[in-house]
Amino acid sequence: MSVKRWIFAIGSFVVAIGVSLYIVIKSWPKEHAAVSMDLGPHVVLLGIAVAELLARGAKVWLSAIAMRIPMSYRLAVRASAGGDFGAAITPNKSGAEPARYLIMTEAGMHAAQILLVIYAELFLEMISLALVAIGLFVVFHNAGSTLVGVVGAVGLYAVFVLGTGALGFFLSKKYGTTGPAPGWARRFKLHGTRWKKVQHALATLRTAITGIRHMRIGMTALALLASVLHICLRIAILPAIVYSLGETHVPLAPLVLWPVALMWGSAVSPLPGGGGAVEVGFRAALGNAIPARIFGAALVWWRFYTFYLFILLGALAAGNTVLKALRDDEHENDEEAEPATA
After folding, report:
1. What is the arithmetic mean of pLDDT over 212-223?
2. What is the pTM of this model?
3. Which residue range is the domain that position 36 belongs to?
4. Pick from 52, 93, 82: nearest CA to 273
5. For residue 282, what are the contacts with CB-CB under 8 A and spacing of at least 6?
6. Terminus-to-terminus CA distance in the chain, angstroms?
7. Directed axis angle between helix 252-265 and helix 217-235, to 10°?
């Protein structure tokens, strides 16, 4: 990444950490009693986090097997961890896919195979997210309209993504990879080279969806199960933290439902790491649910075991490769921008 983008990313992380510190200080109880967590709960939380990463790796690996694409489980886990690192240091988590792509490329996979795996992984993520949202709606249907609405919004997000994919498949079949731009596209200034790029993207999407349609059912079911497991493990982090700090009377519903919206909703944040938006949302959503005595500790450890830990693991697993992928992606964007400004 360029120096400016590094400064932007670092500044966003500084803001996020600063917001966390501010919330911790403001929520500190009047008696100023220190809150600590024993080693045992940390071991459990670390185990949950690592298991969540391994489940995501299993989802990618099983997706590849379902499409008869050779891929090792170790590579799948490394690509997942590297994608976490790339997502964390880029706006809108846009660095995740370039990072995964280059990691798989360096392992010897062909471009077409990689795109199939990435699209299949995204497809299964959306399906599993919708299934989890339905499950949470059933389990916590008495939790209140606001909390149920949160899960409903996440479910609608998943449906929107899947619907967008279906629309792209329809457009790819109708307009193919050749021919001039239709009237509606020209009204959006999608003509010439721009329309060719749209056609190329639609063709890639069509190939990926065709590959997904021919996935082996058994392996696909296992991949979907791994995807559901990774979501369940991630949303189990906050309840584990709160209850290990002695506040076992706190209702389970808000500890499960709000993190779903905060973690998956943070993908729309234009700031790397959320720029403090996740922390502010955590305070607004859970400020009345989690006792003040442990609120600061719950926020800090929740962010660590659901975000910062994966940055460290991703940097260790494939840090240099991820940075190379982001440099290449940035260079390509700069080359595309030059003709437009000429």
Report:
1. 89
2. 0.81
3. 3-332
4. 93
5. 23, 258, 262, 299, 302
6. 24
7. 110
